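Allow me, if you will, to draw on your knowledge of protein folds for a short while. I have a record of one protein: its chain in single-letter code and its fold written as discrete structure tokens. I should value your view on which stretches of the chain appear to form regular backbone elements. Thank you for your consideration; the sequence and its tokens are set out here:
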Amino acid sequence: VANNVCSAVEYFRKLGGNVGVAGLVINKDDGSGEAAAFAKEAKIPVLASIPQDDDLRKKSANYQIVGTNKSQWGSLFIELAENVGSAPPLKPKNLTQDELLNLFSAEETGADFVLEPATDSDMMGKYLKPKESLEVVYDNV
């Protein structure tokens, strides 16, 4: 999704728009570093990294405010607010498909997997009926 936003910014700039991206908020950060690597490649800052945490998820799902000073998450959301407030709009780099895939390991992207087209039998199963040939046969007359 973030790369689509970068692409949209590029598109609107080409149309004469004055748009940019302040940065990236990593939501449900799993600690893999992939989102931060994307931000680095796209040349945008990480404004905040919100961890993937069950307590945070439950409170959010129950519409509890988690960004207060009394909450263990308060300082994180204060930092986010400060970063959003002071971040200038930047022109991000829209990554190509290959650049995007290179951020992930081959195991995750299936780079070593060979695709084979589905057969008629795969697609239609028990409903498969033999097709009449469209081949033209010329008799020697």
